[in-house]
Amino acid sequence: VTLSGLALRRAMHWAPPARANRQTLLHVGLVLLVAAAIRLPGLGYAEFQGDETEVVLRATAVVRGLPDALFYHGKGPGEIVTVAINYGLLGNLSEGAARLPFALAGVGGVLAFYLVARRLLGTQGALADGLLMAVNGYFLAFSRITQYQSLVLLLGMLSVWCALRWSQGG
């Protein structure tokens, strides 16, 4: 938070950043490398736990065509549909395969967060914020289980980025 405040204070304008250059591409690569390095390895680390079992059972019901498979789920259907697509395409489902789309959404969410920060704070502020988001324990934990929070992070940050682009005439 302190780094973000300092970066915002340093760049107190809303002008869009310059086009991506080599430094920006290195920053993006570093943020993606850190985010992927701690989210992707060992996704099959344990059997399904807690709410993961409910998601997998409902995804299995969707693939098998059972009626109302999504209707009685207390949350949005995104997590079930994500696992069901994976299961339907592969024909079988392991812990790692079920968790992979959420880990990728977590990495994508970090990248989208970087893009928003770059537009608001410039490249240095975006690098600091992107790296902090990449190692954020809350989003890291939810990137490694079959839960919808990574999808919310990715889609939410992309919608904020689109709104910023639109507001600035981009």
Sum this structure up briefly:
The chain is mostly helical and 170 residues long. 69% of the residues lie in helices and 0% in strands.
Question: What attributes does this structure have?
Answer:
170 residues, mainly alpha
Structural account:
- The chain is mainly alpha-helical.
- Helices cover 69% and strands 0% of the residues.
- The protein has helices at residues 2-10, 22-39, 51-63, 78-90, 95-121, 123-134, 137-143, 149-167.
- Helix 3 crosses helix 4 (78-90).
- The two termini are 28 Å apart.
The string of secondary-structure elements, in order, is HHHHHHHH
Instruction: Using the alpha-carbon principal axes, give the shape.
Output: elongated
Spatial separation of the terminal alpha carbons: 28 Å
User: What characterizes the major β-sheet?
Assistant: none
In the predicted model, the low-confidence regions spanning at least 5 consecutive residues are none
Rounded average pLDDT: 84
Structure class: mainly alpha
Write down the Rg. Answer: 18 Å
Share in β-strands = under 5%
Helix percent reads 55-70%
- DSSP, total strands: 0
**Oligomer type:** single chain
How many helix segments? 8
